[in-house]
Amino acid sequence: MVLPFICLCLNCRNRARSAKRSTQWEFVRELTVQTDWTRHCATVILARPGVDIPFEDFWYRYEAFLGIPPAELAPMGRPRADPIRPGYTLVYWGQVHQGYPVANGGYTVATEGPWFRSAHGCFVHDIRALVSKPIDEKTALQAAFRFLKLGDQLPWTHPKSCGPGCVSHPEPPKAYLSLTSNPGGPTEKDLRLTWFIDFGGTGINLDVGALTLDAGTGEVIESVPGFIR
């Protein structure tokens, strides 16, 4: 499945037309921005003390100066309370390219009520990605099982009683489509579409925690270490 991000609000297009765009002076007066010049992206965006900016307008208001198209960001996952700052809420706004999430692209945004307070992350500009039709999730999972030499007796289809420390109710692995860095590409902006398969909680004891597969061929291109239970 594609990473489960919450759909953007239905009136976002109207919001884009009605949101007031900031001037350069307002941008400088209202925000503090730290930039990583090696990656050419804003990594830390802070509202200055005393400045209350409605978050629903944020990406549109500063688009011209941050260089981040609002249509290429979407909230992913559920909002959660900030464990450090009482009254603040955190939500991850992930980068999307051609309808697919971009690995390591996006921002963790902190709000206080309706007001924007901070964003930490990075936006990948000028992406070069060849997105062809991917294999489906079932085919990707079968390729992963073959790579790991798993038989038909899978823990989540044939649960067994187990001792302390094992998963008593194993679940099937989770698979997500996303654009990730392409080691064979000439630059870090050359991305490939991949299936990321997470084996956590499956009940399989291996030295691999997850696999990344080429979404076009099903070839395993990376394994993530991790002793799985």
Give me the secondary-structure topology.
Elements: H1 12-18, H2 24-30, E1 31-36, E2 41-47, E3 53-54, H3 55-61, H4 63-66, E4 73-81, E5 88-97, E6 100-112, E7 115-122, E8 128-129, H5 137-147, E9 174-181, E10 190-198, E11 208-214, E12 220-225
Parallel strand pairs: 8-10
Antiparallel strand pairs: 1-2, 2-7, 3-7, 4-5, 5-6, 6-7, 9-10, 10-11, 11-12
Structure in words:
By secondary structure, this protein is of the alpha+beta class. It folds into two domains: 12-125, Nuclear Transport Factor 2, Chain: A (Roll); 137-225, no CATH class. 16% of the residues lie in helices and 38% in strands. The strands form two sheets. Strands 1, 2, 3, 4, 5, 6 and 7 form a seven-stranded antiparallel β-sheet that branches. Strands 8, 9, 10, 11 and 12 form a five-stranded mixed β-sheet that branches. A hairpin with a 5-residue loop joins β11 and β12. Residues 2-17 have low confidence and may be disordered.
